[in-house]
Amino acid sequence: MADIQLVETSLRDGNQCVWAALGIDTARTLTIAPVMDRVGFKAIDFTTSTHMGVAVRYKREDPWERIRLMAAATPRTPLQFMSTGFRFISWETASPEFMALAFQALARNGIRRFCLADPMNDAEANIACARMIKAGGGEYVIAALVFTISPIHDDAYYAQRASRLAACADVDALYIKDPGGLLSPKRAATLIPAIKARIAGKPLELHSHCTIGLAEHTYLEAPDLGVSALQCASGAAADGISNPPAGRMVANLRASGHTVQIDTEALTELESYFTRLAEAEGLPSGSPQGFDAGYQHHQLPGGMVGTMRRHLRESRVAHLEGAVIEELGRVRQELGWPIVMTPFSQILLTQAVMNVTSPERYSVVPDELIRYAIGRFGRPTVPIEPNVMERIASLPRTRELEAEPPMPSVAELRSKLGKGLADEELLLRATMPQAQVDAMLAAGPAPRRYDPASRPVLDLIRKLTARDDLSEVSVQKEGFQLRLRRVAARAQRPAGAQ
Fold first, then answer.
1. Which of 113, 161, 223, 369 could disulfide-pair with 2, CB 3.0 to 4.6 Å?
2. Does residue 174 contact residue 165 with C-beta atoms inside 8 Å?
3. Taking a C-beta distance cutoff of 8 angstroms, is the pair 444, 59 a contact?
4. Model confidence pLDDT, tens digit, residues 219-238
């Protein structure tokens, strides 16, 4: 029987899947940090550059401050940053110099574990990033093998890439990243041994989603096949299209004879916190999903299925959903079988909708698909079908995008944005609208404490103080008293009055 470790994913992947990346802020993170540190996780899947952008744009909070505070609050548990190719916040391809600066800043602020999940499974790009990370002070690098189902993504495909990654001294471990929840126990029984045979004893982890009900079953088989760590979420942030729930997985693993050395009491407290948070904030809770064989055709992340239906409904073409799903599979094949994960899931769906709703297929092509076709996101696994590539190459917009200048050097960015800027602010200003960064800085330090139980009281106070017929509001409970009295506005004095 195996000794299995857990990686906790609620703050990053659970938050993204169940709460559209908006359910977590600095206060909600720091409040539960000491409990997370007690559980005994191998790591905490903490943030991505996209989540850092969300902190600035929607929360007006400094993501660098959040990393520093969380790192200080969880000294025993490494924080993980997930990087998806050569990009930071913006989907524009970043220069190696810019990425090196980003990795240095992340390590300096408290990120100890770096996860590399290139959406093209480009082993050489992952290796280049791993070397930058270690040179910039990063402690631990885990490289992803992003799983999908297609005629070309067989066990030999993954074994070959695993071998190349494991040969790099700067890659400490590998993991199978299954964003669609597509990996079945039957496929795992051949895939995991094929990978283990090629990675020279380096640790192998597994990350999957509950989208079609397969992940928990696969997780229970994985330890017998050589997987040493499983990535799970907690409470309301688990299940649904998120990751398997940590509490249930621990119980089932132990019942199967495996050892999971975590503090069960602390884990129960953690699960309760995320559930109470969701209830207090009116956020959805993940729930077990049934098996859906049709999902294997389109492989869209669950959140994108809802987005697709809303867009089709708003465009008054909801009846075309079946045609769009069928077209998506066709587009994916024509484009060289890209993996259906961000940004390719958005690109594939957009093109499928355009092909179905336009008079002619590929008569309208979004910029991001053109960038994919001209290699801005890396090399497709197999070439784009010639007739589609010719169509894209003939577009005037393609020539414009091919002529786009490369990203300015860091020195040029400093000259443009301010030579005295700290690296952290420079990285934000180089990738985000200036007004959003200004608003974040103007907002000041983020709150650091949160209590789900206080939300109903705060909502009541807001409603009462908004009423014009009340002059005083008093809230009393054991150990707490609050009294608010409305003060009449002082009459405005006429100009020149003393």
1. 223
2. yes
3. no
4. 999 999 999 999 999 999 99
For the segment 163-185, what is each residue's pLDDT rounded down to a tens digit? Answer: 999 999 999 999 999 999 999 99
Could you give the CA distance from residue 376 to residue 86 in angstroms, rounded to a whole number?
A: 10
3-state secondary structure the chain: CCECEEEECHHHHHHHHHHCCCCCCHHHHHHHHHHHHHHCCCEEEEEEHHHHHHHHHHHCCCHHHHHHHHHHHCCCCCEEEEECCCCCCCCCCCCHHHHHHHHHHHHHHCCCEEEECCCCCCHHHHHHHHHHHHHCCCCEEEEEEECCCCCCCCHHHHHHHHHHHHCCCCCCEEEEEECCCCCCHHHHHHHHHHHHCCCCCCCEEEEECCCCCCHHHHHHHHHHHCCCEEEEECHHHCCCCCCCEHHHHHHHHHHCCCECCCCHHHHHHHHHHHHHHHHHHCCCCCCCCCCCCCHHHHCCCHHHHHHHHHHHHHCCCHHHHHHHHHHHHHHHHHCCCCCCCCCHHHHHHHHHHHHHHCCCCCCCCCHHHHHHHCCCCCCCCCCCCHHHHHHHHCCHHHHHHHCCCCCCCHHHHHHHHCCCCCHHHHHHHCCCCHHHHHHHHHHCCCCCCCCHHHHHHHHHHHHHHCCCCCCEEEEEECCEEEEEECCCCCCCCCCCCC
What six digits make up the tokens of 58?
């929607």
pLDDT tier for residue 456 given thresholds of 50, 70 and 90? confident
> What backbone torsions phi and psi does residue 42 show, to the nearest 5 degrees?
-65, -35
Nearest to 92 by CA among 308, 463, 376, 361: 376
| CA torsion, ordered 183, 184, 188, 190, to nearest 10 deg | -110
pLDDT of 302 reads 61
Domains of the chain: 5-281 (3.20.20.70), 298-402 (1.10.472.90), 452-485 (no CATH)
> Which residues touch 182 (CB under 8 Å, ≥6 apart)?
147, 148, 149, 212, 214, 295, 296, 299
Span 408-441, pLDDT tens digits: 999 999 999 999 999 999 999 999 999 999 999 9
Q: For residue 335, give the nearest of 372, 370, 384 by alpha carbon.
A: 384
End-to-end CA distance of the chain: 86
β-partners of residue 485 are 472
Question: Cα 448 to the chain's mean position, in Å?
Answer: 23
Cβ–Cβ under 8 Å, residues 26 and 61: yes
Nearest CA to 116 among 98, 104, 93, 132? 132
Among all chains, which residue has been given the structure tokens 């007690």? 38
